[in-house]
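We give the chain.
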Amino acid sequence: MSLNTKIFQIYFKPELKVHCDPGFTPMDNTDNPNPELREWDKWNREHEAVLEQNLDYWGYVSWKFKQKTNLDSKHVFGFIEANPGYDVYLFNPCIVNECLFANSWEQGDLHHPNISDIGDKFFAKLGYKDVSVKDMVLDRNSTVFANYVVGNRKFWERFMDFSRELFTEADKDPVFKDEVFGHGRSNYAHDASLPNFTFLIERLIPTFIELEQFKSIGFKYTADVLPMKYQPFIDELMSLSDLKVLINKHQSDELYDIWNFYRHKFVERNPNIFTLE
């Protein structure tokens, strides 16, 4: 694999730069003119400049990357180099969410009312046929939370064009505009002012990867790097994650039924498991 790869680590206050990994490239977002759009706005503003760098791969992580994933730049670059030839590399920090939900839309509806309906509406507006975002089983090789994504030029050019269509479609449809950009529509517990936009971006990435058939791979945690909070559950969580991979590999309804049964049993035994996220 080419070493012409950069991971930009975004920080939004000067004092947070100290948390950036020296192996990543710090990216200053203190001047963000559209904070309600979170990191996507920085991706968009920097997109042309990044394209001019002629990188083979690039991606974005937050200043909290180590805190959320227990991974550092050596883990990230090592994983990419050990798995050459993919369009997209994913470093998902929310392991429980990936293992216990069919996809991030199923999880999202619990926190952001009707976000899957907004996703379906957006894909329909763009001409995708018969897409029901909640019906997909998206395993660790397409699922990511927090937008910790590294991709090649093909992925980033197409995804940025795709995601900009949210603005185009919103300008045509006032109801859709309010659903996507309306103040406080996300019902986000940590910031009541946020629109659904940033949470849509987080969920559109995996679905876009799946529908556009990008070759993607997700980092698989092992005991030596798994964040401590997950350690008591590692065997069951990894088994559930592996089952999802097998469901897609074999297109098996029977394996889905097994995974679905055991995920509910796991939650019954561990009713507070989602507080880990």
